[in-house]
Write a structure and sequence with these properties.
Layout: H1 2-35, H2 40-50, H3 55-78, H4 86-124, H5 127-133, H6 138-142, H7 144-176, H8 181-191, H9 194-220, H10 225-255
Helix pairs in contact: 1-7, 2-7, 3-4, 3-7, 4-7, 4-8, 4-9, 4-10, 7-9, 9-10
GO molecular function: phospholipid transporter activity
Pfam families: MlaE (PF02405)
Membrane topology: Multi-pass membrane protein
């Protein structure tokens, strides 16, 4: 019994220590952004990597998500004779929930894993130690530009996701299943409010912080060797995805 209590206590302390280190990491990254955001060229390079290079994945995911919503929504609403409400259902589902969440998950899988692996390799090859030896701040060059780029890129990608998804629902609902196009957009205009748009923006920004924070942290403190980088990358993707879903619930409960 005493051994069990000792193990639980040790586990609790290690978790709290890890959480404290993560909080210090993100606070310091924001401090560096405020004090010295870095050269615009470095930030633009990260925006290109996180944002522009994720466009195709976002476009493809949004297209089929919108089409599935249009298909499922039509047959569900048809049972109640409310096919005209399809535009409202598709738009609200995408803008409030699916747009920010699926965008974050796609960016985590495509860019987050690469960020963690890149920084992890720099750690095990002692490039980060070399920066510290030269009295340079590694977080300023490796973490802060990625964090700022994620904050900028995620809302833009989410907006693209929403527009493409709504058009995907339009293709299925209007062109394939015969919903009146005027009703599709009229009901959408009636039901979508600015608070729904603001909610999506707030979620996207917070998800961008979560992805950059966790992926940079896991890579920065990666273990030794290829196995250490592999574990750090896996942990970064899994933890980021789970935290996005958990944080989405809390934000939804507050913003509704």
């Amino acid at each position: 019994m005493l051994l069990l209590v000792e193990k639980l206590g040790s586990l609790t302390l290690s978790i709290l220590q890890e959480m404290g280190r993560m909080v210090n990491f993100i606070i310091y990254a924001f401090y560096l952004i405020i004090r010295s955001p870095g050269k615009p060229v470095h930030i633009l390079k990260q925006i290109r990597f996180i944002g522009a290079k994720s466009f195709f994945v976002i476009f493809l995911t949004a297209s089929f998500t919108g089409m599935v919503l249009g298909l499922q929504g039509y047959y569900t609403l048809a049972k109640f004779g409310s096919e005209g409400m399809l535009g409202s259902a598709v738009a609200l589902s995408l803008i409030r929930e699916l747009g920010p969440v699926l965008t974050a998950l796609m960016v985590t899988g495509r860019a987050g894993s690469a960020i963690s692996a890149e920084i992890g390799i720099m750690r095990i090859t002692e490039q980060i130690d070399a920066l510290e030896t030269m009295a340079l701040e590694p977080c300023k060059y490796l973490v802060s530009p990625k964090l700022l780029a994620a904050i900028i890129s995620l809302p833009l990608l989410c907006a693209i996701f929403d527009v493409v998804g709504i058009y995907g629902g339009y293709l299925v609902g209007v062109k394939l299943l015969g919903v009146n196009p005027g009703a599709y957009f009229h009901e959408m205009e009636k039901s979508v409010e600015w608070k729904d748009v603001y909610s999506g923006i707030i979620k996207s920004v917070s998800f961008g912080v979560i992805i950059a924070w966790i992926c940079c942290y896991k890579g920065y403190f990666a273990g030794h060797g290829a196995e250490g980088v592999s574990r750090a990358t896996t942990a970064a993707v899994v933890m980021s995805s789970v935290m996005v879903l958990i944080w989405d619930y809390f934000l939804t409960s507050v913003l509704l």
